[in-house]
Amino acid sequence: MSHRESDRRQFLKKSAATAAAVSVPYFLTGQNAAAADEQKANESNDRPIVGCIGTGSRWHAVGPNAMQLGDVAAVCDVDANHAAGAKKKVTEIQSKKGSDRQVDVYEDYQKILDRKDIEIVTIVTTDHWHSKIAIEAMKAGKDVYCEKPLTLTIDEGKKICQVAKETGRVFQVGTQQRSEMGLRFLQAVALVRNGRIGEVQNIAVAIGGAPACNSIPVVDVPSGLNWEKWLGQAPLVDYRWAKNGNTVNTRCHYEFRWWYEYSGGKLTDWGAHHVDIAQWAIGQSEDGMGPRSIEPIYAKHPVDFKDGMPVQDDRYNTATQFHIKATFGDGVVMDIKDSHQDELGFDNGIMFMGTEGRFLVNRGKIVGAPVDALKENPLPENAIAEIYGGSMPARGNAHMANFFEAVKTRKLPISDVFTHHRALTTCHLSNIAIRLNRSLKWDPQTEQILGDDQANAMQSRDARKGYEVTV
């Protein structure tokens, strides 16, 4: 038996075992599924109590989604302006439902974790805060919904997986492509797993490039923002902000994505979505799975680097252009790029290519000959349900509904921390490779970079005193 055939058989066995392990009860599939779930929860008077940690721009989707299925008792943010806005929004939404629940506001997330009445927390902070809060939340007995990308480093992912196993808490990662987007991505996974493109040979993942900017001046910290606490584990630096036309450049809030100190640029921001789907489709997100080698074909950064660290601190520093080649144990090659162009043409999405065809999937479409062939040869009736753990996603608010159902049943949600960690490891390894400008060998079973001590050390970061991520 060849190594590729052995890996494929192992994948199929693991897929069957995983489907059984994550099987969850049937989700409503009618147009009013979310409303029906909410009505049922209201009638039984057992809606979980939720605390919201981090209430910036992304929370304005996550928070209301959680309020369809639970009641928010407290909000927390180191920016008082965000927190005040969140309280107002929660109060308005819940009062329309006839609730007069008091909504408390905190700057310190520990206040939420200390509350015995709060069962669930949503974490919608900057990336570099996710792991510390999530670990402490699980230890405090809370179930967790955390936005992606889950971690700042590979080491943080290992720690989250350890604590999730030790505590048995339910943990959903906010990779909504696993549940929503018109089910296109679930259909893509089903096409691959049902052999509709034969043996997968190559996957092109296009995720866009990060922006660059000119030098950003040091300015006073805005009123209401606790800048020292916002920085958390990252180095203590000056606050920078500038506006050029309609474009805001800053070290803070949304633009934190373009600083390696707080995130991983597009490789983790969008890689957390598309690399996740790609590895899920080919069975490379399970324990012991992942790439064997990472090769940086090219990368362009807006600043210079020394020993893998940016030497300028006054402008964005994540890669603006890149092409990384990740090779997996079964021989599949994944090309992770800022953009990809061929006769189908796309600049964001996933192209699956096999011995018997290829197709493209992104948030707007799923196209290609294997997709066209479904008209005459549809997928098996339960193909997508099997991918989704034995049931179809709810129509409307599916990802949050899957999480709340898992909280009730204590089953793994569809986007669990273990598979997310494996997919995000590929993204983190890609960043390490382009920052050091050299290829890496990775052992996915021991989760170690082979023969490169400097690169291996970059699996973790030194945290500022008082903000360490510990288990």
CATH architectural designation of the largest domain: 2-Layer Sandwich
Work out the helicity level: 25-40%
CATH topology (fold) name of the largest domain: Dihydrodipicolinate Reductase, domain 2
Q: What's the story with the biggest beta sheet? A: 9 strands, mixed
The residue-averaged pLDDT reads 91
Low-confidence stretches: 1-34, 40-44
Alpha plus pi helix count: 16
Return the CATH class of the largest domain: Alpha Beta
The backbone outline, from C-alpha atoms, is globular
Written account of the structure:
This protein is of the alpha/beta class and 471 residues long. The strands form four sheets. Strands 17-16-15-7-14-13-10-18-19 form a nine-stranded mixed β-sheet. Strands 3-2-1-4-5-6 form a six-stranded parallel β-sheet, sandwiched between helices. A two-stranded antiparallel ribbon has the order 8-9. Mean pLDDT is 91; it is low at 1-34 and 40-44. It has two domains: 3-179, Rossmann fold; 183-379 and 418-457, 2-Layer Sandwich (Dihydrodipicolinate Reductase, domain 2). The chain contains 16 helices and 19 strands. α8 (184-193) packs parallel to α11 (271-281). Helix content is 35%, strand content 18%.
Write the layout of secondary structure elements.
Blueprint: H1 3-21, H2 33-44, E1 49-53, H3 59-67, E2 71-76, H4 80-96, E3 104-106, H5 110-113, E4 120-123, H6 127-139, E5 143-146, H7 154-167, E6 171-173, H8 184-193, E7 200-206, H9 227-231, E8 241-244, E9 247-250, H10 266-269, H11 271-281, E10 291-300, E11 305-306, E12 309-310, E13 321-328, E14 333-337, E15 349-354, E16 357-361, E17 366-367, H12 369-372, H13 383-387, H14 398-409, H15 417-436, E18 440-443, E19 448-450, H16 453-457
Parallel strand pairs: 1-2, 1-4, 2-3, 4-5, 5-6, 7-14
Antiparallel strand pairs: 7-15, 8-9, 10-13, 10-18, 11-12, 13-14, 15-16, 16-17, 18-19
